[in-house]
Design the sequence.
């Protein structure tokens, strides 16, 4: 399981997803972002389907999203 922020200081989330795809790694991914309607999110979606958790989030929302991801439930709406 991968929990990935879209905007990081030295690399973008979509760049990480592209690198993972090139490596042939298959995983469940949760994107956390304060900007779900951004160009970075559009780029990320080109690399598959993800659970999206909008920041800020509370611990219960994170727990629910992780549980769903581990059960194979993809949530395209921010929880």
Sequence:
């Amino acid at each position: 399981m991968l929990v990935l922020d879209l905007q990081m200081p030295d690399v973008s989330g979509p760049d990480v997803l592209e690198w993972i795809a090139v490596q042939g790694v298959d995983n469940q991914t949760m994107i956390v972002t304060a900007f779900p309607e951004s160009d970075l999110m559009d780029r990320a979606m080109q690399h598959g389907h993800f659970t999206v958790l909008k920041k800020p989030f509370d611990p219960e929302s994170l727990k629910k999203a992780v549980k769903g991801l581990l059960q194979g439930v993809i949530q395209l709406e921010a929880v």
